[in-house]
């Protein structure tokens, strides 16, 4: 038997954006624990805005487990928050709202800023760097600045060691802004991995005295905001598709604009202005290879009039909850019957 350090993660009750919380316990196992081997665990919900002090117990239900290479015999355990009975999802448990379909695939593009003393890495003290242009996928100190690349490369390695399906990184359009991509077959799997990847990034940045800023528009002015573009496909979209079905699907997305925007992250009106590769927040549009549309249709999707493959919803922002985003996309898809 070996002692394992289990880091239980969950989302608190803060609004409009939940925070990650984590605490550790030590358990003995013969080998790396399987999900079914992990016990439920309680916490003080009155300290996380999830319960009153007079009845403060909440429960953590493990839903995914990953090896933690930063620790000897470490494991990261993603959890859902349950009521004291251990069976009823807590009202803040957005993961439980997903009507999951393992054949629906999601790829999330998480953008963020790395910040030091309240300004993005690479910004001069009391001023601004040169305008956007050379920073996107940039190379060299003047474009990506200092320790930024060290952090994002270490984060990539931590995610891969953890078994997260991390698909890549790049410097983004604004200085100090970066992106990583996570893909999962099944919405819950993809969203779980985004949250764990966020945790790994934030924990890593503690060592460098750097903050991760997920707000969608932390720098006002002529600077790109941060999104979390949601790429999605169903089995029907991948294998059948067709223009008639696509048009019906886009019509439903257009009818549900307010419902989508409501869960696509706070302050999105500051980002979805119609500028900086966005559509206006009150409009819906789609376009082939159009990064100024609400939904970008890849060339590969429309190629040969097949209208088949995956689509990219560009409206979710970097601070959004991927559980809520996936849940809303799935609900809209479910409104369109397949022939």
What would your notes on this structure say?
By secondary structure, the protein is α+β, with helices and mostly antiparallel strands. The chain folds into two domains: 91 residues, Roll (Ubiquitin-like (UB roll)); 230 residues, 2-Layer Sandwich (Creatine Kinase, Chain A, domain 2), CATH 3.30.590.10. 24% of the residues lie in helices and 27% in strands. The chain contains eight helices and 14 strands. Strands 6, 7, 8, 9, 10, 11, 12, 13 and 14 form a nine-stranded mixed sheet that branches. It has a five-stranded mixed sheet with strand order 2-1-5-4-3. Strand 8 and strand 9 form a beta hairpin. Helix 2 packs across helix 3 and helix 3 packs antiparallel against helix 8. The longest helix has 22 residues. The protein is globular. The model has no long low-confidence stretch (mean pLDDT 95).
List keywords for this structure.
339 residues; Ubiquitin-like (UB roll); Creatine Kinase, Chain A, domain 2; alpha+beta
Note the topology.
Blueprint: E1 2-11, E2 20-29, E3 41-44, E4 57-68, E5 74-82, E6 105-116, E7 119-120, H1 141-144, H2 148-162, E8 166-171, E9 177-185, H3 187-208, E10 211-213, E11 228-233, H4 235-239, H5 243-255, H6 257-263, E12 286-288, E13 295-297, H7 299-302, E14 311-313, H8 322-334
Parallel strand pairs: 1-5, 12-13
Antiparallel strand pairs: 1-2, 3-4, 4-5, 6-7, 6-9, 6-10, 6-11, 8-9, 11-14, 13-14
Helix pairs in contact: 2-3, 3-8
């Amino acid at each position: 038997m070996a002692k394992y350090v289990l880091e239980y993660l969950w989302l608190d009750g803060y609004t409009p954006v939940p925070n990650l919380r984590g605490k550790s316990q030590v358990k003995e196992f013969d080998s790396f624990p399987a999900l079914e081997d992990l016990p439920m665990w309680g916490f003080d919900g009155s300290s996380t805005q999830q319960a009153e002090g007079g009845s403060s117990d909440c429960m953590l239900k493990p839903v995914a487990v990953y090896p933690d290479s930063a620790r000897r015999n470490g494991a990261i355990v993603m959890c859902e928050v349950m009521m004291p009975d251990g069976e009823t999802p807590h009202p803040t448990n957005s993961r439980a709202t997903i009507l999951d379909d393992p054949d629906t695939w999601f790829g999330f593009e998480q953008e963020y800023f790395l910040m030091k003393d309240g300004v993005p890495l690479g910004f001069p003290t009391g001023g601004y760097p040169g305008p956007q242009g050379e920073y996107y996928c940039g190379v060299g100190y003047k474009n990506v600045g200092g320790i930024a690349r060290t952090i994002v490369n270490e984060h990539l390695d931590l995610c891969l060691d953890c078994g997260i399906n991390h698909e890549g990184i790049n410097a983004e359009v604004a200085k100090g802004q970066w992106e990583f991509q996570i893909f999962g077959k099944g919405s819950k799997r993809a969203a779980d991995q985004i949250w764990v990847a966020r945790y790994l990034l934030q924990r890593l940045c503690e060592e460098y005295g750097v903050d991760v800023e997920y707000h969608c528009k932390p720098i006002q002015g002529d600077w790109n905001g941060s999104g979390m573009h949601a790429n999605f496909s169903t089995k029907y979209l991948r294998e059948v598709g067709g223009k008639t079905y696509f048009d019906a699907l886009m019509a439903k997305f257009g009818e549900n604009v307010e419902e989508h925007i409501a869960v696509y992250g706070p302050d999105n009106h500051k980002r979805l202005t119609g500028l900086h590769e966005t559509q206006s927040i009150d409009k819906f549009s789609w376009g082939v290879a159009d990064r100024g549309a609400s939904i970008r249709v890849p060339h590969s999707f429309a190629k040969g009039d097949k209208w088949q493959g995956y689509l990219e919803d560009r409206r979710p922002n970097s601070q959004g909850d991927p559980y809520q985003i996936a849940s809303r996309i799935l609900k809209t898809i479910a409104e369109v019957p397949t022939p």
